[in-house]
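Could you join me in thinking about how sequence relates to backbone shape in a protein? Would you write everything just below, so we can both look at the same thing?
***
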Amino acid sequence: RSSRGSTMCKPTYITHIVQQVNKVTERCGAIFLYGENIDCGSRIGGLARGLTVNPAGRIRNVGNCELTHLGVGLGMLLDGGQAALFGKQLDFLLLGLEQACDTFNFIRAYRPRNTWGSFTIFVIVCDQGYQGPQSSLNGAGDFASLINIPVYCLNGADDAAAVVDRHFASPGFRIICLSQRQFGAPALQVPAEWHAEDDSLFRYRSGDDATIVSLNFALRDSLDMNDTLVGAGVHSDVFHMNFVPGADLTAVLQSCRRTGKLVLLDDSKTVTKFGDILIAELSQSGADVEVLSFCRRGCRNEDYGANEDRFMPDHARALAFIRRA
């Protein structure tokens, strides 16, 4: 019974994130949380289950109109308020892109930043497989590129706590993405050794043999790969990189130059990759760094239907690459 109790006390990935959100809403004053089924039914597939706000805040269920959802949030930002939209899947945000891009561009062009309120979108990425063509958009990095805003993908307990605490309800506009595949899994309890001030980068392990960089929701895969490599006597720097335009990448670039080996893991399905920024920077600086990329670039036609949708980087290939003289 004590063993079962200790297991039950460990939060899952999604309950840990909701706990971090509630810590902010407890203290942030007037804030408006809204979404489809946010306070009834499935609670947005479990994303909003257990959400609370302080007495000045409100949680409201809204209808099925993503273009309006984005307009409401940006309108509150424009008026100096605080809003958070909770969305069932990244696919639906496509219906609000005109607001996200053009309305926010207007705000950036004509309203001083010190007058902005806060707008945060929490949204599920349906990466668990067997979902079909309208529930499997896995391209958070493309939203960062299109809108030119920070997009954070929450992987572990440390980065979730840091990103939610420092960015949710802060002035500005950002998207925070959650992995549907990990919802029921125990929260990844791996402390970060270091993180960038803007949380664009987190370092979880240190070593001189290689630099491993994960993007999107590939941190667990990167740490699993690192465990295999450590078992073979190979020690690496392990970073996670968020989709933050204009981020200072000095720490990871210095690591790459020191180790001479870069291993990229990105389980998103975008054709363009944020990890390519690292490769371009290294190439332009003339750095002598070899690169091994485990990245999915787009999909075959059949991959748009219901399928397993599993990202499986090759540990043996990574070990052979790092050991190669």
About this structure: Residues 238 and 248 are 17 Å apart (CA to CA). The first strand starts at residue 32 and ends at 35. Confidence is low (pLDDT under 50) at residues 1-7.
